[in-house]
Amino acid sequence: MNLGKFLKITESEMRILHLPIGICMERYGKQYEEDAEMILSFMELLANNLDYDFKQIINRYFEFVNKQIKMNKEFLENGSYKYAKEKQIEPIINSKEFQIDNIFTLGLSYVCTPSRYELLRYVNGYIKQFIRTGDRCLEIATGIGFHCFCVDLQDAYINTFDLNFYSGICLNILGVSPRVNFSQKYYLFNEEEKYDHCIMIELLEHLQEPLEYLKNVNRVLKTGGKAILTFAIRTPQVDHIYLFNSVTEARDMIANANLEIVTQDYFISSFMYYDISQKESLAEASKYSATYACIVKKH
Fold it and tell me: Which domains does the chain have, with CATH numbers?
């Protein structure tokens, strides 16, 4: 599946997707086009593996976008998420329909949403810069497996955990080596000072007590170990329960977990064009949803 064919499929009723794709092409040029075609080819293989055609998964992604627009409007009106406890979302996240939708929307969002593509670049940049041959990594929230694949290319080891059954299928399609160990279960943080790196992308907002999770990250990292974290700021989704209202709140939580910020970045969730030089101020206090990403180290 190439980008041109994808744009042609979405030409009529899903043309709204062309604007964010155009923003990605303008900002990142040929690199984005190459990455998009790799992701689209992977998604086509995944769809075939699960007995879907590619148009079906595009339709499911478009349904997700429309639901997200509605949730964003509701959030602006009431300032809270629909659910606040993990038990409330358990039946949702454990359902087959949600798990399949989650995998499809995660993958296509890297192509169709500038902030998601930028986040992918940020995480892969961390992996290539800091992870070395033989390093031991922990990932909580496997998703579609792209981070594992990148770690595997560094000849490092990664234990990765996700409740989504289809994350394991994604890893099989990616053809990762035995250095990648996937478990479909909760991670219990029962291995003190074992890991050189921890990857937690798009996880903390799904938890009732994200601070306790961050404290546990400190415990399982070796001395001098690093973690890459993200925080969904003012981002309503059906399975988000902890509301981060600002970047400052996220930074305070990191400090309370006795972790030190090394570098940071901000990704604004908008289909509309904005001045990228203003992304920090937009992430801190604006009408936009945002993702705060940072690399931290153990004191």
Answer: 3-111 (no CATH), 114-298 (3.40.50.150)
